[in-house]
Amino acid sequence: EVGETDYDLIIIGSGPGGYVCALRAAQLGLKVACVEKRATLGGTCLNIGCIPSKALLQSSENFHEAATGFAAHGIIIGEVKLDLARMHARKAEVVGANVKGVEFLFKKNGVTWLKGAGRISAANTVEVSGEGGAKSFRAKSIVIATGSDSISLPGLAIDEKQIVSSTGALELESVPKHLVVIGGGVIGLELGSVWMRLGAKVTVIEYLDRLVPGIDGEVAKAFERVLSKQGMKFKLGHKVIKVETSDAGAVVTVEKAKGGTSETIEADIVLVAVGRRAVTDGLGLAEIGVALDEKGRVKTDGHYATSVAGIYAIGDVIDGPMLAHKAEDEGVALAEMLVGQAGHVNYGVIPAVIYTWPEVAGIGRIEEDLKAEGVDYKVGKFPFSANGRARAMNSTDGFVKILADRKTDRLLGAHILGPDAGTLIAELATAMEFGASAEDVARICHAHPTLNEAVKEAALATEGRALHV
Ligand code: FAD
């Protein structure tokens, strides 16, 4: 039995959920520790997720532009060569700067990093197993922020060499001749884009008849066309039966999702990107009575409280979109609630972005859902082909789509396929957070020439009065 309370708050996991919760709680005057078993802080996102993938997306886009895009601007260079080792080294530098940044912020804010694997061993007690053995610490509150892990298909073993998860796909030592991606979701398409730009043939196999379930269907269809134009191959409505590996490579057997004859596809590398699951193993949750939901996530009450008093959970380990900024905002909200403030996350206004080029970004409701619910809505669309800045950038694929309530004009959702869509969506996030109407957005003076003018025009288009089409 351990003595007095060591901390006000112990957080297990230092991903965007955990580390941001730690920083906010420390700002608010709590004595905070964060348990992390990985050698560096920052979780999936900083180490093997958002940050290394964006580093490779940027590098591969630069390579691809130099090889295929510069000539159109009148820039003639010699043969463009790839130094993949340097590209990976730069990615590691970017990751290193970010994870060290979190360590610096912990020190600056007086947050203690308890190194090792955490387990809730008794009420208000976390046992940390690290290099020096196991040690227990007491806390008034405990937060589970253990995140998520990639999953595979039944019978498909990930070896991180020929059959890789996103983690292996971020580390390939050479450009595969043929990369087969299982799963047409965000991670599969981003990493597929990376290797396609560096020269791989990429084939995406998706069980459903469309890409990225959950995003607006019209945008998904246009996105599929754009990626096809770039050279990505799709086998939609197909399921993987088996993957066999040998020294010669991998053979993927697929079949139509509805059944039928099977066919085989040869690949050097197979990326399995079929989803992620909450990490709850080894935490002692069953023993202490923390309930999980039907998908194996920690069950919370809407205020991040679990079924056990004093234990909370945030981020990928609970329900909701598995996104870093969602985890961060939950971390802030929970820290504020723990000191009696009114922490809050507006789940209706969380942007989701796919960092391909062009990018895809969406926020709020999708058209299918509004239709299904019988909401009286209107649509405004504006293509980037009619936007001066997009033309100047030579990046005219895509459009802005705005959904607004027909009677009140209130913004209900916004979806963008286009250059820098992930940045553009922030304007609409701000507008929606303030309960804006489409007309509010349309009347704001937008600088010319900017990509954001396409947002203004789409808002005007909800009333059929876009100016530049
Ligand atoms: P995590 O980041 O998963 O962190 C959990 C941490 O807890 C880990 O470091 C783990 O080691 C630690 N931990 C687990 N159990 C224990 C234990 N018992 N003791 C001690 N420590 C423990 N999201 C975006 O918003 N934008 C993106 O661009 C994006 N890109 C992605 C790309 C890839 C390839 C992947 C895989 C994910 C991406 N995501 C992206 C998702 C994003 O990474 C997650 O939503 C986010 O990391 C969730 O944060 P978290 O704090 O809940 O958990």
Automatic annotation (TrEMBL):
E.C. code: 1.8.1.4
Catalytic EC class: oxidoreductase
A GO CC term attached to the entry: transferase complex
A Gene Ontology biological process term: 2-oxoglutarate metabolic process
Domain of life: Bacteria
Keyword annotations: Disulfide bond, FAD, Flavoprotein, Lipoyl, NAD, Oxidoreductase, Redox-active center
GO MF annotations, alphabetized: dihydrolipoyl dehydrogenase (NADH) activity; flavin adenine dinucleotide binding
Catalysed conversion reaction: N(6)-[(R)-dihydrolipoyl]-L-lysyl-[protein] + NAD(+) = N(6)-[(R)-lipoyl]-L-lysyl-[protein] + NADH + H(+)
Cofactor note: Binds 1 FAD per subunit.
Cofactor(s) the protein needs: FAD; (R)-lipoate
Family as reported in the entry's similarity comment: Belongs to the class-I pyridine nucleotide-disulfide oxidoreductase family.
Other noteworthy facts: The active site is a redox-active disulfide bond.
Name this protein carries in UniProt: Dihydrolipoyl dehydrogenase
Full-protein positions shown: 149 to 617 of 617
